[in-house]
């Protein structure tokens, strides 16, 4: 009798364990199909999506090509040959030694008088905004002027100039209600650009950007070293290499979408940026 009860209890435990396992497997499968994840099918179609995208002969502009993200993004765009025309818009002309950059168009503008340079924003199908500064470098007022006012005015001119897909580099934790100025401004800009009603609006919210800056920032160097010592799973949740962000932006751009607004968080950036094993 005791043996029979014990056997029944054991069978019940085994059945529950099997059920839990099945539910976990289903959960993992569903999670793998969430926003920003790259299934095997998506990975397999990326080369085809890129080829289809190239055939559309689209034009692109980059704001902030002198910064770390913009610089790497420009390099990736040229290497992948995704656009028939590439334009960078900035406050000064950049010098490139490599042959690959010879056909890059440069529009030099005064961000304090952007209305006078509306023509620089004309005729682009896709736009990437990587414009930004820091409070330490520009002060609180300067930071707000660049990261909010310049970005918003550029987006307005891009919309008026015919841009269909606007991509904004924001930040993990962006929230217009935040008490932290940096996150507050990022959140405000996200919402105000959305009001412009682009056909497609993609927001990227990376964590700490891992890169080797051309300009020395000791604090950021220490932060990068800190994240480099952490377990990969934890570091991936809160940081991301700049090149991964740029590849995620481009992998996302070549994929058709009917979403008017999409937010790509740090975890999704990792998935998208490594979707084809790059």
Mean pLDDT: 83
Strand content is 5-15%
Give the H and E element order: HHEHEEEHEHEEHHEHEH
Q: Structural class of the helices, strands and pairings?
A: alpha/beta
What spatial order of strands do you see in the largest sheet? 3-2-1-4-5-6-9
Helical segment count: 9
Any idea what the CATH superfamily is called?
NAD(P)-binding Rossmann-like Domain
CATH class: Alpha Beta
What is the rounded distance between the termini? 62 Å
- CATH third-level topology: Rossmann fold
Q: What is the level-2 CATH architecture name?
A: 3-Layer(aba) Sandwich
Low-confidence stretches: 1-41
Radius of gyration: 23 Å
Which descriptors apply to this entry?
single chain; 278 residues; alpha/beta; Rossmann fold; 7-stranded parallel beta sheet; two-stranded parallel sheet; 9 helices; globular; disordered N terminus
Can you offer a commentary on this structure?
- With 278 residues, this protein is an alpha/beta fold.
- It has a single domain (46-273), classed as 3-Layer(aba) Sandwich (Rossmann fold), CATH 3.40.50.720.
- Helices cover 50% and strands 15% of the residues.
- It is built from nine helices and nine strands.
- It has helices spanning 2-32, 40-54, 68-80, 135-160, 181-194, 218-228, 232-238, 242-254, 266-273, and strands spanning 59-63, 85-90, 105-108, 126-129, 165-169, 200-205, 208-210, 239-241, 261-265.
- A seven-stranded parallel β-sheet has the order 3-2-1-4-5-6-9, with helices on both faces. Strands 7-8 form a two-stranded parallel sheet.
- Helix 3 (68-80) crosses helix 8 (242-254), helix 4 packs parallel to helix 5 (181-194) and helix 8 (242-254) packs across helix 9 (266-273).
- The longest helix is centred in the first third of the chain and has 31 residues, at 2-32.
- It is globular and about 40 Å long.
- Mean pLDDT is 83; it is low at 1-41.
